[in-house]
Every structure is written in structure tokens, then in C-alpha cells.
Amino acid sequence: MKHAAFAAAIAPALLLLAACGRTEPVGDMPSQEELAAAANAAAANAVASRQDAAEEVESRNYVNVERGFSITLPEGWTRDKGASSADGIVAQDPGAGADIRVFWQKNDGDQTLQQIVEAISNGAEGVDGDYIGENEYRGTANDGEGNNVAVRLVKQADGGIVTATFVYPEMLSEQYQGIADRTLTSLRVFAPKAAAQEEAPAANAAAPQ
Question: Residue 206's pLDDT band (boundaries 50, 70, 90)?
Fold first, then answer.
């Protein structure tokens, strides 16, 4: 009787162990070809994800070789092709009422940067900014219509002016202030294509033979 009771007691445990040790039929295991196909698919997805990320970064980087400047747009913003031109770009945050405009303009009157800043600040409210050397200005203002404006102007060596303005609703200042600062900081100015081509022969001529 003791043996019968002992057997009855351990029977559930033995069944559990048997279930744990049971292996699936070989026929249910994936074949080597299936495993290889799954690995190839995973690798292809990883490559595609990296390509998508690279394309996204590339689409955010705007470079205008002809006018000599570049800027990195905020993530998720779309370019307004209708408002953009050979002289610059307009991009917007869809549905949020914020935009950035970066354009080159010829400085026909050879105005100083201070004169240009005074002209574009006319009519704006709460204008505040600083000159960084003789060829750069960064500031903020309010357009009087409920929008804050962050601006950066850079004067090129040939006198041309690159102006970047980041406009966003005043009520969303906390959300956009940091984005505006980072975006304007990403602005880079370099020699326009025509000027660079003119400088190359001169540099070659000046080089010792």
C-alpha cells in the first residue's frame, strides 16, 4: 500500500518531467534553407533601415553650392518647393504654423550688416540681438501677429548676405525655441561656386613652379 501511495504521489511529477523533456518532431524544425532565407531577410531589412535613415539625414541637409551656404532642417519638416528658389529654401513643420526661410541676396549697395539689420527690423517688436564680429548677427523679435522670429544673418566675403529666419507661434515658444537655435546654428557659409572657380586659377598661378 505504501508503494501504491508513493507511485500515485509521484505520477504527476513524472508526467511533468516527461512533458518538459519532450522534443518536437524533426519534421517541424525549419530546414537549413529556411534558416538561411530568414537570415538573409533580416540582413536585408537592416540594410534598408540604414539606407532609410541615411536618406532622411540627406533630405534634411540643404546645400546651395551656387550661393555658398548650407543648413540642416529640423527632423520631419517638409520643403516648400513653390516658395523655394535658386537663391534659397523654405521649409515648414506640417500643421504647426512654424517655418524657416534661408535665402541669399546680393548686396548691391554694399550696405553694412548693421544697416541691413536695421532695415529688416523695421516694424518688428521686441527686437533683441547681438553682432558677432563684423559679419554676423543673431537676434530675436516678434512680428506683431503672435509669432516669434529668430534670425541669423551672415555677410559673405564678396558682400552677399545669407539670411535665415525661423518663425513659430509665440504660444509654442517652449517647444520651438531650442529647435530654432539648433537650426540656425547649423547654418554654414562658404565661397559661392563662381567665386571658388575664380580663386582656383589664381591660386594655381601663385603656386611655385
Answer: low
